[in-house]
Amino acid sequence: MASKNSANSSQTTPADNKKPQEQEEEIDIDLEAPETEKAALAIQNQFRRFQKKKK
After folding, report:
1. Rounded to 5 degrees, what are φ and ψ at 6?
2. Polar residues bias located where (predicted)?
């Protein structure tokens, strides 16, 4: 069990170490909504353009 804990501790980020009382907010997103699909496509297109400029 010690090896499992050490693996988890190496994967934590500074954001994970804020306050122990804070719990991650659960976000409910309807993945089937047309607005969500449009937003995802827009983000993907911008990322592809960024990758092309980067090269």
Report:
1. -70, -35
2. 1-15
